[in-house]
Amino acid sequence: MSEYTIIYFPVRGRCAAMRMLLADQGQVWKEEVIGMDQWSDGVLKKTCLFGQLPKFKDGDFVLFQSNAILRYLARKHDLYGKGDKEGAQIDMANAGVEDLRIKYAILIYKDYDTGKEDFIKTLPPALKPFEDLLAKNNGGKDFLVGSKISFADYNLVDLLSNFEVLSPGCLKATPLLKAYVNRVLSRPKLKAYLESDAHKKVPINGNGKQ
Ligand code: GTB
Question: Whose CA is nearest to atom 18 of ligand 1?
């Protein structure tokens, strides 16, 4: 029996995808919410391997780094594709999501006022590789890789949901991606979680920008 705990700031941020994965897989988890006042005293930060959150616990087992946490959960819950090749393709897709997430975080936390317009203009070409991956996999009817959802799908769908908030309609140029996001978001357990206060009342980012 797993005893999962997510220790993070009161935002969706880098924990949204792992929460979506857990909810969709019917898992329960605890949240330890760290306010900025607590974080600023530096006590917890000193105990974090890279000086950052999220921190994740499975009982006594502790992990840092959101993508490592996603992969751990993927291995435990069979969300890493079939065989080495699908696993490598899922890693490749997730690395693309991470590259884009870093650009989004820079926009949100550093360049929002000056960079938003340009960021939105670069979205269609930035999303094209994911549209291409979908197109090559059963004409876009399945997931990024293979016929079963993977951790990279939760990560991508979370980021694309944030982009839809930043720029409503931004998926118009990538219709397979748009249909895929809708399909994933309508999975019953995931939908119920996303409609709950546990998700809705938590802001996307820590500075009020979205
Ligand atoms: N590579 C790491 C991962 O993927 O886990 C990156 C983790 C990371 O960037 N953590 C940030 C952090 O711990 C929080 S996510 N920052 C504190 C520090 O470095 O001291 C982004 C974020 C920023 C601000 C808030 N906020 O104000 O509530 C929340 C989340």
Answer: 52
